[in-house]
Batch of 4 targets.
Target 1
Amino acid sequence: MRLIEEYARGGTGLAVDEVWALEAHLEKCRDCRDRLSAAVTADAPAVAALTEAVWSDLEHRLASAVPAPARRLRARLSAWTTPAMTPWLAMVLAVALLALLLDLAGPGSGQVSLVLLLAPVLPVCGVAASWSRGLDPAYELTAATPRAGLQLVLRRTVSALAVVIPALLAGGWATGVTAVQWLLPCLAFTSLTLALGGVIGVSRAAVALVAAWAAVVVAPTLATSRTAAALQTEGLPVWGLLLALGVGVVIARRGAYTVLGAHR
């Protein structure tokens, strides 16, 4: 009750984590919302009067408005994706398709698979688009909601992986590239993007890791026509360690995703 009364007076005496916890609780608890309403009426009459004036002005407009049809599917998708993700995911799928076509049209089995080279970093582009300040016009509103933070980052990451990984699995099957070679590096790259994103921003982290992958793995592989050691089965334990490290950092720094800096 103390938190609600202080929140009704403006919340200046509450810590940031207390405000976020209270707002998240108010979304689910009607009894506490009623207590907040009573506290506002008693302790902040000016706010109550303003709310009443706004409501009286809107009440007749809302009564005459035609209710829009329920769009449950869109509402559910909005909790997992943003409109800005659609063109970026389409671009990622187009790149995967192009790599598949180049592999199928290649001169022989000795050529290094482009699907194998691109698979570990393609989902990172979708993850960056899902949490980018420049691509999401509602990023400030999103970051200010009680449910923002790690939960929302993970939801959008899962939605990007759910689109990209099946396409890569199909491409790998068509070209003879096994998922063992790229799936673990793919998940490790994704977790490292989120881990580094908590420090410098998810988009910047994605750009940095993709550039490092291109310089360290893709360029030498194309120059020598030999699959890099990072993509061979001997390197899988290292990728597993990097995946665990990325997940650990994300969990340890989960509070970093509630600030606007993570959208850089």
Target 2
Amino acid sequence: MKKLAIFGTSGFAKELLDLALDQGYTDICFLEKEAGQNQTLLGFPVFLESEIVGVANIDFTIGIAAPKIRQKIYEFYPHLNFPNLIHSQATLGFGIREQLHHSKGVIIAAGARVTNSCSFGDFVVVSFNCTIGHDCKFDSYVSIMPGVNLSGCIHVGTGVYIGTNAAILPGKGPLELKKLGEHSIIGAGAVVLKNTLVHTTYVGAPAKELKRND
């Protein structure tokens, strides 16, 4: 029996339930720091983190879209097993599945399409119906929300959050990638034409700097 515990009870955690079932997990629970007795979510039990993290033979995933929170959870529980979860209806290009063997905690949802010559760090989220072109590089803890298009030759820094239906136009080539600075936020529907700065929010089409994320 495959067992999976999902950190969180938010909407993203509920979406991961579908992915877990697709991947053959039959014994699934959700984890919260504080949970009442006999609490359930979608018919599945909700436990305190402290009740589950010491149990053997359980896989874990993080059902929280915010990059910084995902990073904090992993750094608090680095000894847990965080497998990659790749939906059976996601499309991976040549060599991507093999490349992902070097990563942990990656989530790729149904309908996502990843072409070849891409690389992934740890705990990258690629949500529903995203398209990722060739020669994209993702550092760890990146969140790519539904419907995002990355057109190719893009380096996405650690902790970047890309909002729903944003479009990132391509870099000049594999040796000159467009760069999204670490911990930058790309707003929903934004169209990014240029490199972005670190710790900065961008919105609009074309995307313009809105504020620093200090």
Target 3
Amino acid sequence: MSKTFIASAVSVLFVANIASSFANSDLPDLGTAAVNTFSLEKEMVYGDAYMRVIRSSAPVLNDPVLNQYLSELGNKLVAHATGVKTPFYFFLLRNDEINAFAFFGGHVGVHTGLFLNADSESELASVLAHEITHVTQRHLARSLEAQEKSSTATIAGLLGAILLTIAAPQAGMAALATTQALATQSKINYTRLHEKEADRIGMQILVEAGFDPNGAADFFAELATRYRFTTTPPQMLLTHPLPESRITDARNRAAQYPNRYIPDNLNYQLAKSRIQVRFSSFNDEAALSLFETQLKKHSYAFKESALYGKALALFRLKKYEESEAIIDTLIKQDANNLFYIDTKTDLLAQRKAFDDAIVLLEAQRKLKPTSQVVNANLANIYVESGSPKKAIPMLEELIFLDKQNILPYQIMTDAYRKMGNKALEYYSNAEAMALAADYKGAIDQLNYAYRHSEGQQLQIARIEARIRQFREADRNLEALK
């Protein structure tokens, strides 16, 4: 199953590079002026469809702490990008492979393996800046338009193959292989132009956002050294070739900026520790040993991140008192750090100290009223403590702020179940299923909701409208395949 997940998760980036290979060399090297046929509206439609299919077929993480960290980092970089014409959506895939990819509609996926192998936040940020540039420069759309000029049938086949690859990797890659056979070696040069453009503009974004310009070169050099003699390089090197000239170019670009010290970010190292314990191939004992060794040898970027990793490992080993003692010490040093608050909430919930958890989280909510971490944790605590009705308003707010987040719908489904509201339980579950491209299942859930809504005309009308919308969405999804 894991191999399927890997193929599914990286397929879009393969497609982006394959699509680029079709482009004609007479297209402009910069900007998006050439994109006329493949509109932004089309990009948004395809991006939404692909994201839903990815949720259904790949291990997308629903971890509020990591999601909020990645979104804040990504949006910090986007704020310094030019030519931003779509919203951006950053998400994590549980996969130890080193990779990141971008596709239609501002979607940027990051493998957890990237955190495991990047030494600093600047290194991670350099990869994100590169992928953001692929989106702002509309590399995939530009390539598709170039191909459409020569063959409308081929572009339709390519777009269908993208979705097919996500849904069924083996069949999809076979379809792409057939399409790719039409490309000539001279057209592959446009892929290199895209990569150079993404490297150059990505560096500008990186520096303007306040990160170390050497982040890109350092990460490239580490990858080149680590996989120089391997027969199976990581997916990132397959989709982002790394000749020596690319590392040299990155070094030369970085040297053009003033030399200044950029300290690493503690939250990046906390995120890395969280992934190492909860979302990597480490077993619980190995994870504990890793952080105990770091603490013993002082081999850490931040002592706090090593202590945090140890606390998480102790929690997983059910050594709750030891874990809580460490977390309490960390909270005394940094009372509002959401990594610590999240784990403290888990510890309080484990011993059913719900009132203490509510006091902690309500205080944080006053400071960070829109925080995904605070609101998701607080809503979950209210549900677990027997007050599910109090969870609904904050879950609705989470959904309003991020309509692509499946987690609030899942918690809401549980909340309505405990409230005994069958109609809204089924309705919430339908929304969660639709976000994973299961429109037929979602319609079934809405039909159940309809049966439990007798006499509630407004609710019935809402359900009927949603059924029509999901039927249309299902037809549109089938048409893309």
Target 4
Amino acid sequence: MSNIVLADDHLIVAQGIASILQPEHRILAIAKNGLELVEFVKQHEPDLVITDISMPDMTGIAAIAALKRINKTVKIICLTMHEEQEYAESAIAAGAQGYVLKHEASENLVEAVNQVLKGETYLSTSVTVNTEKPQLSSRQISVLRLLAQGKSARQVADELFISPRTVEFHKYSMMKLISAKTSAELIQYAINHGLMD
């Protein structure tokens, strides 16, 4: 029997998920947002986390990244209504091992839990993920980390002993490489891929 912490901002949905998993698995706690999820995982140290993506205060994807910084070995499944590839890729990049669509939960969630607990990955059949990461150079990563800390191009340039124009060039190159349309998307990429450590 494994110990599980659930997160969903709709209690009725979370209770439905719990009923699918019990009595084979033990539900230790149900969080209603990402911040609460992080706290419950610290308290209970579960074998597995099952989290929604769209939640108040902190999204599921942000919570996954936070949990992986706290405990790299914790296993995580996203249970969501989002079928879009970018959501699945963000969840996997942040550290999730499973991605299950809510309308498939009654048929597939138990199988997903069993696979992920064995160290395997589980994706709903209608979800596609490109797991190949674009390769950023060490200089690009240095620039990205500083930009993600809220520093201006001038401040980054001063810190890395390069020109502001070079900083802007690296920023543009990275955005093109990862298909980011805005600086915010670029910074989200840094967070999702653990480049902030």
